[in-house]
Amino acid sequence: MEVALSVNGTAAERLLMERARAGDRDAFGELVSRYMRRAYFAALGLLGSHDDALDTSQEAFARAFRARGSLDPERPFYPWLYQIVRRLCFNVTRDRRTRRTRLSEATPWLVEEARRRSAADDPARLAERKELRERLEREIDRLPPHERETLVLREFEGLRYREIADLLGIPIGTVMSRLYSARRALATALGESGLREEA
User: pTM higher than 0.70 for the full model?
Assistant: First the structure.
């Protein structure tokens, strides 16, 4: 997924941010419209719950509006917003450690992996697919938060390694290391290494 905006798009976003920083609710509403879906799916990937993702992404925008004075129109809006989303998600995760992660709404690659392993939709294959997804969900839930977050950004949002590094403020080597550890854990759960390795 290409996250860089066109020159015109960048100029338009900069203007919206300037207006929002000055308290223009309509301008901020336009920024919300642009990034609401992306913020929701980022929260869903980290939390695994549709309801929690909705609540968290909405709370993130509310906090972003309250913190609008710190907006820098010279920098893209989404990385700034994402830092708010991820802090809220980590708070939810910290406070609900016993909750099982449910990522079925945002895991097309899991469905594809299960489909690839199923030659036909007979009951035995369907049961195998269900078991595979449940095993993967358990393994994703067991990943350390920083590995789970990096995996979400790569597999669900489709960001490149450099984009993830810039978004999280970490070296690209750390991104690669976290993805390697997360993928190896999931591959062990599958009994094979079927996750993407391309940068």
Answer: no
